DNA sequence: TTTATAGTTTAGAATTATTATAAACTAGAT
DNA sequence: ATCTAGTTTATAATAATTCTAAACTATAAA
């Protein structure tokens, strides 16, 4: 993804393309593989190189803004820390209990043949499967 | 569940049936419905009545011990707080994004017709589906 | 262009969730 | 009854996140 595309992406979701947001967005979206991260890991990534520094508060703000805009998505975990994923397509995860690592599972590798009706007045927004692994 | 059964449950998992553990266990397991909770909510429950007080640290310790023993299970969420469930059977959840509430879905209301092979050397420990709801 | 202003960033404080510590206590074996 | 390892407790420490309010900036309008 080129810088121009990044800027458009931000603009299209009502976010001003500030220096900090563009920097974070490039770090997130100019990758080959999808990226699983916490605010802490992203903050380290962003601030390690001699590059321009971004404050931790801004990393928090930006991650929240990107999540609301649907550019990244929050992952379901059983930890007291928030995890995010640059893969926003409907997909599922392996969670390895030994290594504590998350891996994507392609959407078409899981098929549900029966799903309950949502309660009245509610719609299904999405559906995620987490498969816990052990040795 | 009677007190004696509670005591056995604790003993069988190598936990001494102390006053505090029995109190917490009764609060958790002598319920009609399954119970979704955080340490904070459980702590309030336990300590509200004029009954014997249990320290917050003990509530944390006990919840951890019960989880390890498999008497309760940790729920997958996208929050920076740990949620637990007294329903340890394989089952799934609705997560209502508006009210932030979790509801159990019976195991047999969800059917998977295709599940990926686990990576080499790993076994599937369990599989959980979370259905996110919106208005 | 300047200028005005709403949106954004920032350091640091405040809050919330959890884990660690080490002294006092207790269940259960001897 | 006594001993001891396991447990509880208040409190401190740490970790994750949110808040605050002052400084800064993108951008729309003059």
Question: Overview of this structure, please?
Answer:
The structure is a homodimer. The first copy, chain A, has about 140 residues and is an alpha+beta fold. The first copy, chain A, has two domains: about 5-75, Arc Repressor Mutant, subunit A (Orthogonal Bundle), CATH 1.10.10; about 90-135, no CATH class. Chain A has helices at about 5-10, 20-30, 40-50, 55-70; strands at about 35, 75, 85, 90-95, 100-105, 110-115, 125-135. In chain A, a hairpin with a 7-residue loop joins strand 2 and strand 3. In chain A, about 20% of the residues are buried. The model of chain A has no long low-confidence stretch (mean pLDDT about 90). At the A-B interface, strand 6 and strand 7 of A face strand 6 and strand 7 of B. Strand 7 of chain A pairs antiparallel with strand 7 (about 125-135) of chain B. The structure holds a DNA duplex (30 and 30 nucleotides).
Short description:
Two copies of one chain form a homodimer. Chain A is of the alpha+beta class and 135 residues long.
